[in-house]
Specification:
This protein has 282 residues and is of the alpha/beta class. 45% of the residues lie in helices and 18% in strands. It is elongated.
Length: 282
């Protein structure tokens, strides 16, 4: 029985290609690539002459069946994506599943991964983490997805984001998660690699006026799930009784509990009114 190899390829720096990946790509009968032109550059760089065939999100259903038939005929096949590990927010799941359903051996050839690379340099807790892929493009759907992720805290979360939506995504993260700790990893392993660290407000301020290029990986700390309204009001009341201004209590509660500034402000006004009414009636 032939084997399907799931082969990780560089996410930017060609030197990150493993010796095993080079050997496997040379020895298999066929390479299934997300973009044969892009993969062709990699193969040429390492003098690999193995035939390639396209396998991407627009043809994966039909092509998966074709590739499984080749595997049944005894042809070893390597699956690669444009960059990183196949099947991680890239085509690959359907082929791997179909191969296993047909009792075809599937072997991982591990290597570069934007997820693990960004996590490893983030400085955020790594004992457990959540990978949530790409956020939805539309703001409403994006905020709903972030609210779902918010319920999973406390946890380190990794997201992919397009450079043209980065600032909008960060604003939504701040509104839903509060001014949480964040790392933006841009152009990982490439010449213009950049790791930006700080809270959301700080990073947004640093990005003001900048044109962001290159795919970005976000690593953020999802705080504890939102407190109940009663808990928030008690905290607001305590801070106000200590003499903190409305602006100060909103900032404190928003950062501490991860509620949006809008919601914190609304509740702060309610508490302020209650305190004033209590003081008047006394």
């Amino acid at each position: 029985m032939a084997t399907l190899y799931v082969v990780a390829t560089p996410i930017g720096n060609m030197e990150d290609m493993t010796l095993r990946a080079i050997r496997v790509l040379k020895e298999v009968h066929l390479i299934a690539a997300e973009d044969t032109r892009w993969t062709g550059k990699l193969l040429s760089h390492y003098n690999i002459s193995t035939p390639t065939t396209s396998y991407h999100e627009h043809n994966e259903k039909e092509k998966a069946a074709y590739l499984v038939e080749r595997l049944k005929e005894g042809m070893d096949v390597a699956l690669v994506t444009d960059a990183g590990t196949p099947g991680i927010s890239d085509p690959g799941y359907r082929l791997v599943r179909l191969a296993t359903e047909n009792h075809i051996p599937v072997s991982a050839v591990p290597g570069p991964s934007a997820i693990i690379s960004a996590l490893s340099v983030s400085g955020l807790p790594t004992d457990s983490f959540l990978f949530a892929g790409f956020l939805p493009q539309k703001r409403g759907a994006r905020r709903r997805r972030l609210e779902e992720i918010r319920t999973r805290g406390p946890v380190t979360c990794i997201l992919y984001e397009s450079p043209r939506r980065l600032k909008a995504a960060l604003e939504d993260i701040r509104d839903v998660m509060g001014n949480t700790e964040l790392v933006v990893a841009r152009e990982m392993t490439k010449l213009n690699e950049e790791i930006i660290r700080g809270d959301v407000d700080t990073i947004l301020g640093g990005l003001e006026g900048r044109a962001i290029r290159g795919e970005t990986t976000l690593v953020l700390r999802v705080p504890e799930p939102p407190a109940t309204g009663i808990e928030l009001k008690e905290e607001l009341r305590t801070l106000m009784e200590k003499g903190c201004s409305l602006k100060e209590v909103v900032a404190e509660v928003s950062g501490l509990y991860g509620v949006s500034r809008k919601d914190a402000y609304r509740m702060a006004l309610e508490v302020k009114r209650e305190l004033e009414e209590g003081g008047t009636s006394g």
